[in-house]
Specification:
The complex is a heterodimer. Chain A is an all-alpha fold. Chain A contains nine helices and no strands. Chain B has four helices and no strands. Classes of the chains: A mainly alpha, B mainly alpha.
């Protein structure tokens, strides 16, 4: 509840008090607060001395999880795109953004134009917001794997603190690995889809 | 890079220092406090950015539908791989 209130309060402050001129300062602050958070997460993970043993034991699932999530996300995006009558290639790359809205918007925008880039931005922004606001429900529905999957590429940074908070620090390492693999795959998959199915469509 | 360094620094500090329930409690509170601050800044960042408002015009609902579908499919896939456990061992 406090987490939802924080986001809503921030949105209100951004709407009423702040504007585009404050973005560099907000980005700077965001990075440092995130660094502080990751410091505390690192501390919590390493308190449990056997974290690296668990990470090694989980190596197969740590690779299988992001790959399965990526395929499902592409399929989900394509299916939804078909329902709302978007070109298949465009909805595929929107779904394949994995929550990394800045990268996805740029890549999709370059290939399919500004409007498509804005849609990709929104699709992936909604994804991140859903994780930030509905993490406990996602956890209940899909387990820790479902929550980490929903977070996509952001599981290694912006949504990692929420995942650790609601699912427990034992999931931090898996979340980090999944987020890293997906972050590496997002540009590659986007460009692959564009090169196979073509841009400008 | 800063984020990875911060994470590694936290792990090094925890490994190098002796276990203390008091320090662990302080770290947990610090973590929760900074999480709330992070969410506050994320919210402010969203609504302060004029490009977000610009992209909301027109067919924003299609972005919402695709985003929700991709998220739901990802939750399902994650559940498929790890099962529905959420408190058990990894």
């Amino acid at each position: 509840m406090m987490m939802i209130l924080s986001v809503l309060l921030g949105m209100l402050a951004g709407f009423l008090v702040l504007d585009g001129h404050h973005l560099p300062q907000l980005d700077h602050l965001l990075e440092w607060v995130l660094a502080l958070l990751l410091f505390t997460i690192g501390y919590e993970v390493a308190q449990d001395g056997s974290w690296w043993v668990r990470a090694w034991q989980d190596r197969k699932r740590a690779i299988l999880l992001p790959l399965t999530v990526l395929l499902a996300s592409l399929a989900g995006g394509a299916l939804a795109g078909w329902v709302v009558r978007l070109p298949v290639a465009q909805s595929l790359v929107m779904g394949g953004g994995m929550g990394w809205y800045s990268m996805s918007a740029v890549l999709v925008g370059q290939s399919y134009g500004y409007a498509a880039g804005a849609l990709a931005f929104l699709a992936n922004l909604f994804r991140e917001l859903m994780v930030l606001l509905a993490a406990p429900w996602l956890l209940r529905w899909g387990g820790a794997g479902g929550l980490i999957g929903a977070a996509g590429a952001t599981a290694m940074d912006s949504t990692l603190p929420v995942i650790v908070r609601v699912a427990g620090s034992k999931w931090a390492v898996l979340s980090l690995i999944s987020g890293m693999i997906l972050s590496l795959l997002v540009p590659f998959i986007t460009l692959l889809v564009v090169s196979i199915l073509g841009g400008g469509g | 890079m800063l984020l990875l360094l911060a994470l590694a620094a936290g792990m090094v500090v925890a490994s190098a220092s002796r276990k203390s329930a008091n320090r662990q409690d302080i770290m947990r509170k610090l973590g929760y406090g900074s999480l709330l601050l992070l969410l506050l800044v994320v919210g402010a960042r969203l609504t302060a950015d004029p490009t977000v408002w610009a992209s909301f015009a027109g067919q924003w609902w299609k972005g919402l539908v695709v985003g929700m579908a991709a998220t739901a499919a990802s939750v399902w896939a994650g559940r498929l791989v790890l099962g529905a456990r959420w408190r058990g061992n990894t």
